[in-house]
Amino acid sequence: MRQLVFVHGRSQQNLDPSKLKEEWVSSWEEGLAKSSLKLPIKASEIRFPYYGDTLYQLSRGASEESMARVVIKGSGADTERTIFIAAIVEEMLTKVGVDLAEVREESPEAAERGPLNWAWVLAMLRAIDTVPGCGAASLRLFTNDVYQYVTMAGIMSTIDTGIVGAFTPDCSAVVVGHSLGTVVAYSILRRGHTYGWTVPLFVTLGCPLAVSVIRRHFAPIGHPGCVRRWFNAMDPNDTVALHPLDSSHFGVQPPVENKDDVINESENHHSIRGYLSDSVVARRIYDGVIGFPIFEDAQPARLGVEAPGWPGVRAKLDSGVQQAVDSGQGGSSDWG
Known about the structure:
Blueprint: E1 3-7, H1 17-33, H2 52-59, H3 64-73, H4 79-95, H5 100-106, H6 118-128, H7 136-151, H8 153-164, E2 173-178, H9 180-189, E3 199-205, H10 212-217, E4 227-233, E5 257-259, H11 272-276, H12 279-290, H13 299-302, H14 310-327
Parallel strand pairs: 1-2, 2-3, 3-4, 4-5
């Protein structure tokens, strides 16, 4: 039977891991219901490694509010972090159509554009606050957490060890990551072959891997050898997932399959509920777990449009999966 591993994003500290997992599972159930489906695996069998408190304690040990002030004010000694944050913010402003020249004009002290001019960085952060669905404080903390993870070996090693422990040796696993969790999952799966892992499907939701400064930290990028198929979904208004993982922004072979028309109805277009409740996203995870055969020449079917002759096959398989789950035998097939 295939495993299902969920890897959450940032800002999950001080939460009850079981309730957080319940939110993910219920959101997926909501998406499955749109296709008249139920969970193909018992909720108790879904792996949900929780690193929220670990990241929080290792990276700061301070409150969100105080850390936001630290990131806002900056530190002359932390030049690399300032450059990292500035690069992401500038790319985000460009993506949402903010004229950087106007930002500079409105802040005379930021006349000298560049990440080493903190006045310029602050001017860009203030501009972020004017963009609907964007929150400057949340963005500062998000970029800081990504920076801490990709640049500090101790933090990466501790978090990675916890995630690796969620996998069962010699058992294939479908992996679903969200936000910072996509960065963590990708980092780990890049060396998944050393653990002997087989990942028939890797799903990334609200993924920032295509942001230039983040992508460069993983250079040379590549399709993890243990991953058979990679499916990425994003809301075009999600300002964390700035770009699809396509040939222009994240060129890997085999290429990542992108769905860039998710309607994530949360305020910031980035919530996990808004992604997992999407019917196509939910179905792709379902198909990955049960091992439904996804033929390379049936691209419409892979995006939720049924190919001729498949509805009957799906109906029989879905019925059999549910019977197996109800009987406690698991819902995975040998296909895929």
